[in-house]
Amino acid sequence: MIPEFGHFALILALCLALLQAVLPLAGAAVGNRHWMALARPVAAGQFVFCAMAFGALAYAFLTNDFSVRFVALHSNTALPTFYKFAAVWGGHEGSLLFWTTVLAIWTLAVAVAGRAQPLEFSSRVLGVLGIVSAGVLLFTLLTSNPFDRLASVPLDGNDLNPLLQDPAMVLHPPMLYIGYVGLSVPFAFAVTALLAGQLDRNWARWSRPWVVGPWVFLTLGIALGSWWAYYELGWGGWWFWDPVENASFMPWLVGAALMHSLAVTEKRGLFKSWTILLAIAAFSLSFLGTFLTRSGVLISVHAFASDPARGLFILALLLVISGGALLLYAMRAKDLTADGGFTLLSRDALLLANNILLTIAAAAVLFGTLYPLILDALGFGQISVGPPYFNTMFLVPMLPLAVLLGIGMHAAWRKTPPHLLVTKLKWPAIGAVVFGVVSPWIFFGTSSVLATIGIVVGLWVVASSLVDPVTRLVRRGGTTARLTRAQWGMYLAHLGVGIFILGATVTSAFDVELDRGVRPGETWQAGGYEFTFQGLRNVEGPNYDAVEGQFEVRRDGELVTVLRPQQRVYRVQRNPMTEAAIDARLHRDVFVALGQSLGDGAWSVRIRVKPLISFLWIGALVMALGGLVAVSDKRYRSQKAEEAERVREPAPATTRVQPAEGH
Amino acid sequence: MWRYAIPLVFIAVLGGFLYRGLYLNPGYIPSPLVGQPAPEFSLPSLKEPEREVGSDDFAGKLALLNVWATWCIGCRQEHAYLLELSRTSGVPIYGLNWKDDRDAALDWLATLGDPYVATAYDPLGDVAIDWGVYGAPETFLIGRDGTVLHKHIAPLTPEIWQRDFLPKIREECGSLPCPLVEGE
After folding, report:
1. What digits encode the pLDDT tens for the residues A298-345?
2. A interface residues, B as partner, C-beta within 8 Å
3. pLDDT tens-place string over residues A137-162
4. Ordered domains of chain B (ranges, CATH)
5. Four-residue CA torsion sign, A570, A573, A576, A577
6. Which terminal residue of chain A, N or C, has fewer Cβ atoms less than 10 Å from its own Cβ?
7. ipTM value of the model?
8. What is the rounded CA–CA span in Å between residue B94 and residue B59?
9. Residue A518: in which H helix or E strand, if any?
10. Gap from A381 CA to chain B (nearest CA, Å)
11. B21 touches chain A (CB under 8 A)
12. Torsion of Cα atoms, A445 then A451 then A453 then A456, to 10°
């Protein structure tokens, strides 16, 4: 009964979504305030029904209702409760339900925040979100109903894919989805601006938190996914340029570009049509990501069950939603003219460079991801594009971006006198170069050109992000202007970028990899550590059996840690899984994964010593934290606060180097 | 202005490619060997090291060459079906034991049963390289004139036999009397 109830709630949600898609937009077009006023309550209702449907499916999982096909395919009585709940989004149908529920939550948030905005504006935004929601709900109900029943009820379920039975995997998809789906809000804002034919600074100010918010979730989601791949897939790598990873990374890059171009649109009224285009692109790429993961057009480690009928539906949805927005853009964008200019050395110009470089990087990733598909479609056969292409194509725009970033944070709008920048950034630059050249020799006794460049750039970003906060903390109450939350957020996020660059460079340049066959009792060296294979034992988990190896790790004769990697076989699905054991410290990870038995008591073992790999996750966390701090800035909260800010803020035409206004 | 329509054109082209992509199989990797003469080889037999097993053994016959190893889980999975095929299909199955240990392999055949007419022992994987093997199990169908008719990667199942192998075998045999009658 409960699953039928959930199914019915989903149908009602679709009805409300259709209402939300039609009436507010029609009302705004003809000036009917009653129709426009419907947007908010309808959005709230849609949220209630989506939440009910989601609750019904979760209930079916928790009560082991294997008469529901989706539950039977993705759960099992032996599955721990924690994972039973997470299994709701562990397959295609459930993850779509999750998608629509998240969209309903974002829509509700927009409806609540929209009370401060003109009715015509907020109802158009909600109307556009209604179109997206109706499309996805229709897709769910027609092709992927999670509430379908089975004619003959199995005694037990097929179990959740063992790869997904992991704490990080419980959080990774929701984070990504919240980010993906959240980008529909700036998309709706962009379409609203095109419909209304006007885009003022208020529009940009209202949009900004709705870009930063989803971007924070995307950052966390991507970082979690990378962390999961690192310790769960057992390959010891942290980024594989897999199509599905790329699918999440492209909206992140474009979202970052959008964040920065919105700053220019808000402060200077420039880049208007470009900002709109980025907002449409960011959401379209999210949708494309959904298409790529769900349709099976590309090979990926994320092997979801896929079928062309579903792919066709998402493709149609993508073309209707994004194509419609771009058609509107083609007709209306020319009306969004800008006023005012800027010089080459100004924050405006540097942010333009930021946008160009981020867009180039995103385009390179998009091209590399789709290239095999394009060649295949043209009949040139099958190829795959590997990491060498992506690493090069990504680094080329990213290195100059990181260098310019340090300057951009400290440049003023419109025009900056060079000598002020030199005074401020002289020491961070010198320090970064000296320490960057010397430190690899000190810590690793070796270096390379690429490693030096990476470390110098990383240190430069870290140092230039710290200049203002440190000055502020040292000279408390001095002449330095107070930093707003937006500025703190900006410095923090960029500090995160710097930390990340350091981690990525050092890990890639100085890691130690060793794959070998070993027998119990054997001892060998790797990366300054001494490993001893002490033996094996059998372990029984709740729903798997495992062989566990025991490895003693010593440094200079002293015991560092004992690592116990496992080779698991999950009882229901029978696939072997590698559980690597990692001793994680701030300055390095020691990673041991157990491979296959080579016979005669020998086992293949994979050893990695990865310096500074923790900086990758710390960097991502600091970036996300920076975004959160920036969003909490009070000028996004109320009209009054904004006016207070206006009074305090100096006129933009000033030539003094202002502490950066958060961008 | 026309330049504002560029993104629209871009997404239309992209949509076209994605649509086409829906009907292509990205997992399909054609073997360059299919339609080509099978590479010749001669290796010591697994069971009798002093005897040679090689392409001469199946010259002029319709035959299967199955690449296997004791460390390969998929091989264990398909083993029962290979035994069944060896009894019912009438197509002789030759084995290529790949990068394996002789004792372990002999032990495997003794415990699980031996579906192979003969097995060539290739501990270093030299012959497997000529055959383009990059994973086990792989199964090749070789025609009477020595051409590779089909290559299958992954464990063999009744469904795959029915779908991929039988049509090729029928085509190869035509109206001539063929060893194969049952197994359909």
Report:
1. 654 444 445 667 778 888 999 999 999 999 999 988 888 766 678 888
2. 273, 277, 280-281, 284, 291, 295-299, 308, 311-312, 315, 318-319, 322-323, 326-327, 329-331, 333-334, 370, 372-374, 376-377, 381-382, 576, 596-600
3. 999 999 889 999 988 888 888 888 77
4. 33-173 (3.40.30.10)
5. negative
6. N
7. 0.83
8. 12
9. strand A512-518
10. 9
11. yes
12. -60
CA dist A367 to A198, A296, A390, B8, Å? 33, 18, 10, 17
CATH of domain A171-336+348-389: 1.20.120
**H or E stretch covering A337:** none
Cβ(A391)–Cβ(B45) below 8 Å: no
Q: How many CA atoms lie within 13 A of A545 on its CB side?
A: 5
Q: B27: nearest CA in chain A?
A: A299
Residue type for position B101: D
Burial class, A171, CB count within 10 angstroms (exposed 0-12 / middle 13-18 / buried 19+): middle
Residues in chain A closer than 8 A to B1 (CB atoms): 334
Chosen from A293, A326, A334, A598 to mutate, greatest number of chain B CBs within 10 A = A326
- Taking the Cβ of residue B1 and every Cβ of chain A, the question of whether any pair is shorter than 8 Å is answered with yes
What does the domain layout of chain A look like in residue ranges? 1-165, 171-336+348-389, 417-510+619-648, 512-611
The string of DSSP letters for A81-131 reads HHHHHHGGGSSHHHHHHHHHHHHHHHHHHHHHHGGGS-HHHHHHHHHHHHH
Sheet holding B93-98, edge to edge: B118-122, B93-98, B63-68, B138-142, B148-153
Put simply, the answer to whether B22 touches A315 (Cβ < 8 Å) is yes
- Would you call A240 helix, strand, or coil by DSSP? coil
Residue A477 DSSP SS3: coil
Q: Which residues contact B65 (CB under 8 A, 6 or more apart)?
A: B38, B58, B93, B94, B95, B96, B131, B139, B140, B142
Residue A613 and residue A589 in contact, taking contact as beta carbons nearer than 8 Å: yes
Residue A653 CA neighbour count, 13 Å, CB half: 2
Question: A450: which 2 tokens?
Answer: 């690429």
Residue recorded with tokens 């000190």: A442
Rounded average pLDDT over A494-518: 92
The token pair at B32 is 């360059």
Please state the separation of Cα A106 from the chain's center in Å: 16
Q: Say if strands B93-98 and B118-122 run parallel, antiparallel, or are unpaired.
A: parallel
Q: How far is CA A203 from the centre of its chain?
A: 24
Task: Answer for the pair A504, A481: CB distance below 8 angstroms, yes or no.
Answer: no
| Shortest CA distance from A327: residue in chain B | B8
Q: Which residues pair with A555 in a beta bridge?
A: A558
Q: Which residues pair with A608 in a beta bridge?
A: A513, A591
- The number of beta carbons lying within 10 Å of the beta carbon of residue A400 is 14
Low-confidence winner among A226-235, A263-272, A397-406, A484-493 (lowest mean pLDDT)? A226-235
**Residue found by looking up tokens 């993961």 in the block:** A293
- The DSSP 8-state label assigned to residue B118 in this structure reads E
Out of B15, B22, B73, whose CB is closest to A297? B22
Which segment of A41-45, A184-188, B101-105 scores lowest on mean pLDDT?
A: B101-105
The string of DSSP letters for B128-160 reads HHHTT--SS-EEEEE-TTSBEEEEEES---HHH
> How far is A565 from A584, CA to CA, in rounded Å?
14
Chain A hits for B29, Cβ within 8 Å: 382
Q: Distance between CA atoms of A294 and A288, rounded to whole angstroms? A: 10
Using the Cβ of B14 and the Cβ atoms of chain A, whether some distance falls under 8 Å is answered with: yes
* Cis amide prior to B137 (ω within 30 degrees): yes
A593: nearest Cα among A575, A581, A603: A581
Please give the span between the terminal C-alpha atoms of chain B, in angstroms, as a whole number: 65
- CB–CB contact B104 A599 (8 Å): yes
